[in-house]
Every structure is written in C-alpha cells, then in structure tokens.
C-alpha cells in the first residue's frame, strides 16, 4: 500500500467529506465510492445532503433566477435542453460544434424575442447535453444528459 494512501485514509471523515465536496458529483463520486467502504459511506452522505439541499432550495424559494441586462444571445449549439414556462423559453447546456459541453442557462422572452441570462443560486448542474428539461409546479426540472467526453457511444447498449 502506498504511504500517501495511508495518510489520506487517516484523515477524519469530516475532512474527507470537505475534500470530496469539491469533486464533481456527476463524474467523480462513482469512482470515489470504489476506493473503500469508508469513502463509499462518505459519498452516500454527500449525495443525500446534495439532494436534500437542492430540494430544500426549491421548497423554500431560495433557488431563483435573475436576468442580467445587455446580454446578446447564446452561442451556437446542439443537443441542448429546452422548456417553456409562462411566456419564456429556457435552454440549458448542449454541445458546441467542437463537442464542448455547456452548463449555461438562457431565457428567451417569447413576447419581445429578447434573450437574457438568468442568474441562479443553489447547486448548479454540470455541463451536459441531451438532458431532459420540463416544467413542474412552476419550476424547471433538468434530468439526465451526459458530459463530453462521454463514457459510451450512443450506439452501445
């Protein structure tokens, strides 16, 4: 066993939890869980905390959008998510022509045809494409998708 591995495993769980909280829950958590049972338990706790914090922010009205002034329009993209809420169409993420994943949110006022860039608070999704966005109880819900580079080509099951 590597001496560096012994040192990091000797850290208190609170310190490991803080370190792991800076990693991507979409990309890194699954790999961290494979290290040992202690790390798996810490990641399970972080997943529960992240889900609870995200749900609480919606229920308590702490997750909100605010628009910036003088914003042009989103860059060209494909595989983005979109949904219409009231008289505004929202798009999230997608891929550039060079397959760069985005995690930006844009709003198009369907009456004025003016784009704005809503400012959000709370946990922000990782860059992703081909996700599903829908409206539920006057809120936008984003589900699924993938980040480039992705693990499996589309034609594999």
Automatic annotation (TrEMBL):
<dbReference type="GO" id="GO:1990756">
    <property type="term" value="F:ubiquitin-like ligase-substrate adaptor activity"/>
</dbReference>
<protein>
    <submittedName>
        <fullName>F-box only 42</fullName>
    </submittedName>
</protein>
<dbReference type="Pfam" id="PF12937">
    <property type="entry name" value="F-box-like"/>
</dbReference>
<dbReference type="GO" id="GO:0019005">
    <property type="term" value="C:SCF ubiquitin ligase complex"/>
</dbReference>
<dbReference type="InterPro" id="IPR036047">
    <property type="entry name" value="F-box-like_dom_sf"/>
</dbReference>
<dbReference type="InterPro" id="IPR052821">
    <property type="entry name" value="F-box_only_SRC"/>
</dbReference>
<feature type="domain" description="F-box">
    <location>
        <begin position="5"/>
        <end position="57"/>
    </location>
</feature>
<dbReference type="InterPro" id="IPR001810">
    <property type="entry name" value="F-box_dom"/>
</dbReference>
<dbReference type="InterPro" id="IPR015915">
    <property type="entry name" value="Kelch-typ_b-propeller"/>
</dbReference>
<dbReference type="Pfam" id="PF24681">
    <property type="entry name" value="Kelch_KLHDC2_KLHL20_DRC7"/>
</dbReference>
């Amino acid at each position: 066993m590597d001496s560096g591995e012994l040192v990091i495993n000797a850290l208190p769980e609170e310190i490991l939890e803080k370190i792991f909280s800076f990693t991507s829950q979409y990309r890194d958590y699954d790999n961290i869980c494979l290290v040992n049972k202690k790390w798996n338990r810490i990641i399970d706790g972080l997943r529960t905390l992240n889900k609870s914090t995200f749900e609480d922010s919606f229920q308590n009205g702490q997750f909100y959008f605010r628009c910036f002034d003088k914003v042009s329009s989103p860059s060209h993209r494909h595989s983005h998510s979109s949904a219409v809420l009231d008289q505004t169409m929202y798009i999230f993420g997608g891929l550039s022509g060079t397959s760069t994943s985005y995690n930006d949110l844009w709003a198009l006022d369907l009456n004025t045809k003016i784009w704005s860039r809503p400012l959000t608070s709370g946990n922000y999704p990782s860059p992703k494409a081909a996700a599903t966005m829908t409206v539920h109880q006057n809120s936008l819900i984003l589900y699924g998708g993938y980040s480039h580079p992705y693990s499996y080509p589309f034609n594999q099951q």
